[in-house]
Amino acid sequence: MSKKDGINRNKEHPTSPDTASDKYDGLSRRDFMRIASLSAAGVFTGSLMSGCGELWERQPVIDVDSWHQGVCRFCGTGCGIKIGMSDGKVVDVKGDPAAHNRGRLCIKGILNREILYVEDRALYPMIRKNGELERASWEEAMELIASRFSQSIQNSGPDSVAFYGSGQLFTEESYSANKLFKAGIGTNNVDGNPRLCMASAAVGYTSVFGKDEPMGCYEDTDHADCFFVTGSNMAECHPIVWERLQDRKRSNPDTFLIVVDPRKTRTAEHADLFLQIKPGTDVALYNSMIYEFYRRGLVDLEMIEDYLSFQSGSNSITEEQFRSHLEKYTPERAASVCGISAEQIREAAFRFGNSPATMSFWTMGLNQQIQGTAANRLVMAMHLLTGQIGRPGATPFSLTGQPNAGGGVRDTGSLAHALPNGRLVANPKHRKEMEELWNVPEGTISPNPGHHAISLFQAMNSGDVECALIMSTNPIQSLPNILPYRDAMENAFVVVADAFHPTETTKYADVVLPAAMWAEKGGVFSQSERRYHYVPNLVEPKGEARSDFDIIIDLADRLGHGDLFPNRTQADIWEEWRKISAHSTYNFEGITYERLKNQPGILWPCPDEDHPGTCRRYVPGEDPLVKDEDARLDFYGRPDGRALIYLHEQGEPYENQNEKFPLLLTTGRVLEHWHTETITRRVDDLKNIKTDFLEVHPADAARYGLQDGDDVRVASRRGDAEFVTRITDDIREGLVFATFHSAKHLVNKVTSDAVDPFSRQPDYKRCAVSIEKA
Ligand SMILES: Nc1nc2c(c(=O)[nH]1)N[C@H]1C(S)=C(S)[C@@H](COP(=O)(O)OP(=O)(O)OC[C@H]3O[C@@H](n4cnc5c(=O)[nH]c(N)nc54)[C@H](O)[C@@H]3O)O[C@H]1N2
Ligand SMILES: Nc1nc2c(c(=O)[nH]1)N[C@H]1C(S)=C(S)[C@@H](COP(=O)(O)OP(=O)(O)OC[C@H]3O[C@@H](n4cnc5c(=O)[nH]c(N)nc54)[C@H](O)[C@@H]3O)O[C@H]1N2
Ligand code: SF4
Ligand SMILES: [Mo]
């Protein structure tokens, strides 16, 4: 492949391949380069420990035949990309200047090209025979699956089978699987990895506003004067939204950044105010900030009077009752719970409430707690009570993790308790509506919510669920407390459709189906800001791989439910789905394939084909579904148009630290790797980026006789795993941190599967452990 000579060096952030750190040696020798550190006062330092994210650009490839509009395969930022093709191969990927990311990409975005050409793709179906996975034909594999599923359904009823999906499937795929299982087979056993990821945010939005999904958009970042970033390491996990936040800071130096995180992450390094709280104490912190809003007169009385109601559990309460509960959360008291100073809480509250426009961002640090729903509701409450909502730059914005957890799973209702567009399985009216829209007899949809992720794997273990289809997710690495779920894989008949083999999950499968991946198939993704956008099918699938959509339709036919899909293409499914959406406040009837193929995405609501899409929901003049044009806001998702403020008390940890397990473990991610690394570990340029470390505070290292680089065993009540010690004071004393990326160092043998009582999302962010030299 020929390359142009001149590299488009960013003058303000001069760099060259040889200034890149050792960590990126492989990369800098190749044909792309880091063009800028994302912040650090705008100066590129060449050090990855400078606290910056990075932007990347490839040296232009000159033999590109055609350019195609697409979307990055990785995170919920959902960057628009341009895909360069030559001779039927993807030869270049660059940021789309017309998309919200303004042409910028992080390292994973650039590598969308190489991920198509890495080793270890699953190439043909495999069936387990005498304990070993052996090559089989599609016909043999699909017949076996159909007969095992049919047998179970016949003998043990529809609830003996299940689908476990992913926020990385296309919308058409999740929608079809959901329809097959709920309207065809007649079971609500449909769940997926968004349960591990976005469930607390979804319950938060739904219970507060009546409808799921954030009301704001990325553009709000350009208007905010104060950012409240909590439980989110944006610089590594949503680097291009982070870059937009940094743009705002650069153009408006008074912009104030508050970061709440038990670790001093690359995000936290840039904070103007950093609250390094004890894990799991968010509820106390936010209650205390709300206490301060009242004390300092920062509450918005008009909002309270006209747009808010107060709630405790399922009971209405008065504002006075809510206020008196706050008395327990004076900054002094909250400070001792959270492990920070009262002065920090006061300042955070003042900055948040007093700024012209405050925007919050949060992700797994909130969602993955046993009080995840409570923490979500309280961040929303902070915006509602101070009126920091519904204006440019003033919005509570939950960042979505995966590229299609929002549109694909939350909005299609591909979860065990849900039906499309915010409907609920348990609601007879909602079932009837969906039965009519799906054109199936009344009573088809089961009134019983299915198994959520954790309970599904428990049911596979106990034998209640006999057959499962797992698609585009690797649960035997990503579920918490995985050891018992390995047994679940042995006990049930499990089909795994994955683009790669082996993975921790395919290893235990009865049937492995080779899946086509990104750009080997096309479809619709939706990212954090309700933007639907389209990924084109540009290359042939590897080997005998088929798209997940084709697999679902084939299974539907073989189970006798082919008539649910009278037209067989994804385009037909999209048509069906956008028309169904018109019967709801998630209306995107105006978003056609045609439009998506010609522009980098559209934000719903979008009721007709002339509508440009909606930046701010619930806002008169912006949201086409708002009825009262004279109102300040219209929370039309709620029957009385009033959003709910929930009372929540700070709870106790679900498991105690004691002499045997004196420390806390928290888990998360690094910039360069994606989840279980099935893709990123196979990319040459990322192979050497380490994810085998356990971060330990120097005081704890001294206490347990650990040196930097020592092998260390971390153990909980459930299991243990070995890592390499990395000593750092970026972490709170008493807390250790590992990523869940590495399949060699499975941290989820140690984590706990305790779940939030409302969202059923597990708490990956806090469990009691011991450490010792291994
Ligand atoms: N590079 C990269 N990017 C990704 C992904 C990836 O695998 N790699 N995955 C994508 C997906 S699916 C997701 S869900 C997102 C996740 O994105 P993030 O949520 O930003 O990532 P995490 O590292 O899981 O956790 C975020 C932060 O929460 C903090 N935290 C832990 N406990 C608490 C607490 O009790 N309170 C508060 N306030 N904070 C706490 C952690 O220290 C951590 O810094 O990233 C997406 N983007
Ligand atoms: N300890 C700990 N554990 C966690 C978390 C944490 O913070 N800490 N975070 C949780 C969160 S937020 C998430 S989202 C989950 C993610 O957990 P997983 O979803 O299990 O992680 P991935 O590695 O993204 O798995 C996707 C799988 O799909 C395959 N694949 C890729 N493309 C395709 C395709 O088009 N079709 C098919 N069929 N397969 C494909 C990949 O090879 C891979 O095996 O992890 C959760 N687990
Ligand atoms: S920020 Fe997310 S969507 Fe954008 S290039 Fe990076 S991984 Fe892809
Ligand atoms: Mo996630």
UniProtKB/TrEMBL annotation:
- UniProt keyword Oxidoreductase present: yes
**Gene Ontology, cellular component aspect:** membrane; nitrate reductase complex
The protein's name is nitrate reductase (cytochrome)
SUPFAM superfamilies to which the protein is assigned, alphabetical: ADC-like, Formate dehydrogenase/DMSO reductase, domains 1-3
Q: Does the keyword Calcium apply?
A: no
GO biological process, any: cellular respiration
Entry cofactors = Mo-bis(molybdopterin guanine dinucleotide); [4Fe-4S] cluster
**What's this chain's function?**
Catalytic subunit of the periplasmic nitrate reductase complex NapAB. Receives electrons from NapB and catalyzes the reduction of nitrate to nitrite.
Task: Return the Pfam families for the record.
Answer: Molybdop_Fe4S4, Molybdopterin, Molydop_binding
The entry's keywords: 4Fe-4S, Electron transport, Iron, Iron-sulfur, Metal-binding, Molybdenum, Nitrate assimilation, Oxidoreductase, Periplasm, Signal, Transport
Main EC class of this protein? oxidoreductase
**Which reaction equation describes what this protein catalyses?**
2 Fe(II)-[cytochrome] + nitrate + 2 H(+) = 2 Fe(III)-[cytochrome] + nitrite + H2O
Q: Which terms in the Gene Ontology molecular function aspect does this entry carry? A: 4 iron, 4 sulfur cluster binding; molybdenum ion binding; molybdopterin cofactor binding; nitrate reductase (cytochrome) activity
Superkingdom to which the source organism belongs: Bacteria
Q: Which residues form the 4Fe-4S Mo/W bis-MGD-type domain?
A: 65-120
Residue ranges of the region described as Disordered: 1-24
Which EC number(s) does the record attach to this protein? Answer: 1.9.6.1
